[in-house]
Design goal:
Layout lengths: L4 H8 L16 E4 L2 E7 L15 H23 L5 E12 L7 H21 L2 E7 L8 E9 L2
Parallel strand pairs: 3-4
Antiparallel strand pairs: 1-2, 2-5, 3-5
Helix pairs in contact: 1-3, 2-3
InterPro entries: Endoribo_LPSP/chorism_mut-like, RutC-like_sf
Pfam families: YjgF_endoribonc
Organism: Paenibacillus selenitireducens
């Protein structure tokens, strides 16, 4: 028996934060032709630092998962229910890292694993890319933007 995304949140004991507001002049999300594009989100609480210097890969994983909670909060606030998500389409991560850091993919797994847990393998499997960044807004360890297919 497949559980809905909202049921999975409850089963996992996840309480989403209040959806964060845009930090500048842009929208939290835009829906075009059944696709919902979420602006870049980072972990709440404003952690800072670079992977490979002040932060470990394991800490980055936790921060990527926290960024996922921010994305889910925006989805839920914008759609009224996560159950309106048909599919996670694309995820792109920007990891604030030193030039010699090479485990970007392991950091972004924190985000991807959360989406798979909430949406399940059929809806949660997604395309993705991850890049190392020289710097990111507010010196956050990671920022993730994402695209979802949603019900009209």
């Amino acid at each position: 028996m497949n559980m809905s995304a909202e049921q999975n949140l409850q089963r996992l004991g996840i309480v989403l934060p209040k959806a964060s507001e845009p930090a500048a002049k842009y929208a939290n999300f835009v829906i075009v032709n059944g696709l919902l594009f979420i602006s870049g989100k980072g972990p709440s609480g404003h952690p800072s630092g670079k992977l490979g210097a002040a932060l470990t890969t394991e800490e980055g994983y936790v921060f990527a998962r926290a960024a996922g909670l921010e994305v889910l909060a925006v989805l839920q606030a914008g759609l009224g229910s996560l159950d309106r998500v048909k599919r996670v389409v694309k995820v792109q991560g920007f990891v604030n890292a030193t030039p010699d850091f090479t485990e970007h993919h392991k950091v972004l797994n924190g985000f991807s694993d959360l989406l798979m847990e909430v949406f399940g393998p059929d809806q949660g499997t997604h395309a993705r890319s991850v890049l190392g960044a020289v710097s990111v807004r507010d010196n956050l360890p990671i920022i993730v933007d994402s695209i979802f297919q949603v019900e009209d």
